[in-house]
Write a structure and sequence with these properties.
The protein is an alpha/beta fold. The chain is built from 15 helices and nine strands.
């Protein structure tokens, strides 16, 4: 069989595109540095400034700041006036790179890449031998997730997410029992408990550190209607107790997602609601082509979500398990009414409202 002929134009186009990928990866790492050091926040409050002035405003070493600025300028993130040797962060860019941007701060996402890169050797070994990489290999991951989701919960949980379920806000105001599965650091529970003091909330997670963080925040806020338990959520023994159960990006990386969903269905009262927020993807690979977030989903999955499930001997659904698979598992668990809602300005998640 003769070798396949190469389309030179297609090859050159791919090479050019791949150089862009390398440049983007480089800028992602440098953006993470800028986010962690507060450089974007410092520059947002400055008029065009020299590297020394920016370093002073951020309390950082000028030589490092100057080199970082070089990456930002050639990456067209920061503007540069060569005549005056001054740098400027345009407000249109600051709107997606600073703490003040809240949930729109895209720079925060880049902090995941160094964390995921740290487990590359372990993941490569799993490629060869199977198995997975345990949660213990990601000491900073939960902290990052807590920071990311906290911004979203503060901005949208009470006023945007809860109203997706008709009548839910009124029931929460009157007083119901609710649970959050895979609660992490528990911020969602505490935000809801503060907003709806007549309701009672519990957060379940198998992480001692996460539960401790949730308890500490609840104590700091003076909440008496929020509690947290270290619990394997495949073993929730409650029956028809809760009117609301939530799970925020927590189901797809469970060891036994089907068991978790069955337990959630059993723990709900007959008129209760399960609100499951998970990744907005299709279960069909071909339908994710063209989704600008899809490369992140599959990367996140390979280097974290899928592998931590497999490390526990789990199903390894993966981040991009998709809406079709989610509906299949929800139906299998006993949910008969399933609606998929989308929230404006949230391209990453789909909001499933499921009832028995």
């Amino acid at each position: 069989m003769s070798e396949e002929q190469i389309d030179e134009a297609k090859a050159e186009a791919f090479a050019d595109r791949f150089v862009g990928i390398i440049a983007g990866a480089s800028l992602a790492l440098m953006t993470s540095v800028g986010d962690r050091t507060g450089l974007f926040d410092a520059m947002a409050g400055l008029s065009p400034s020299t590297s020394a002035e920016i370093a002073q405003a951020a309390g950082l070493n000028e030589r490092y700041v100057r080199e970082w600025l070089g990456a930002m300028v050639v990456g067209e993130i920061v503007e540069y006036d060569a005549a005056n040797q001054t740098y400027r962060l345009p407000p249109e860019h600051a709107a997606f790179l600073t703490t003040a941007a809240g949930p729109d701060n895209l720079a925060y996402f880049t902090q995941y890449f160094p964390v995921l890169g740290n487990v590359e050797d372990e993941v490569v070994e799993a490629f060869r031998k199977g198995g997975g990489v345990p949660y213990s290999s990601y000491p900073k991951f939960q902290e990052l997730q807590a920071g990311e989701t906290s911004r979203v919960f503060d901005a949208t949980l009470v006023d945007v997410t809860m109203p997706l379920v008709p009548g839910l806000v009124e029931r929460l105001e009157s007083g119901i029992e609710a649970a959050d599965v895979g609660t992490g650091a528990g911020h969602a529970v505490n935000v809801l408990a503060k907003a709806f003091p007549n309701s009672r909330f519990v957060g379940y997670d198998f992480s001692d550190e996460g539960v401790a963080a949730g308890k500490a925040e609840a104590a700091e806020w003076g909440l008496t209607n929020a509690r947290f338990e270290v619990k394997d959520v495949t073993d929730i023994a409650e029956r028809e107790r809760f009117e609301l159960i939530t799970a925020f990006d927590a189901i797809h990386d469970q060891r036994e997602p089907r068991a978790v969903l069955r337990n959630i269905a059993q723990a709900l009262k007959p008129e209760g609601t399960f609100l499951m927020v998970d990744i907005a993807a299709s279960s069909k690979l071909e339908e994710n082509v063209g989704n600008p977030w899809a490369p992140l989903f599959y990367t996140w999955s390979t280097l974290h979500c899928m592998t931590v499930s497999l490390a526990l001997g789990g199903e390894g659904l993966g981040t991009a398990w998709g809406e079709q698979k989610a509906r299949e598992l929800l139906t299998e668990a006993g949910f008969t009414r399933i609606e998929a809602e989308r929230v404006e300005d949230d391209p990453i998640n789909v909001y499933f409202v499921a009832r028995k």
